[in-house]
Amino acid sequence: LVSQEWMAPLKEKAIPVTQNFEFANFMADPTAVRDWNLQGLPADSFSTENGVLTTGGRRFPLLVDPQNQGNKWVRKMEAARQLKVFDPNSKDMMRSLERAIEFGTPVLLENVGQELDPSLEPILAKNIIDNGTGSLSIKVGE
Question: Tell me, what DSSP letter sits at residue 133?
């Protein structure tokens, strides 16, 4: 995207640019990328760019992952932090999700359809409430 959309206008306006600019090389630490590759993320530039967006984005990532590569990568990357994996239809998913949030455990929602349970909206929107006492909370569910 950067090289296709931005480089030509910058050159037309004589704005200095780095030759052979690569988004992933600029935004990612090479040792982190190497770790991602060891954890199963493919080594191509497209996957690396997606890895940068997944790990560095302010919003929660949505992986459209027909080959299951991203799923395997996230599982390996977060395994040491006791990743919790849920299906939106699993029993007691909201209670387990609340516990994961409470303890700072990463969560992977698999097999998500076109629409999510509306009770997930505060979590996805990161509607964090500062109680004024130094503690933060988020209202989950109803």
Answer: S
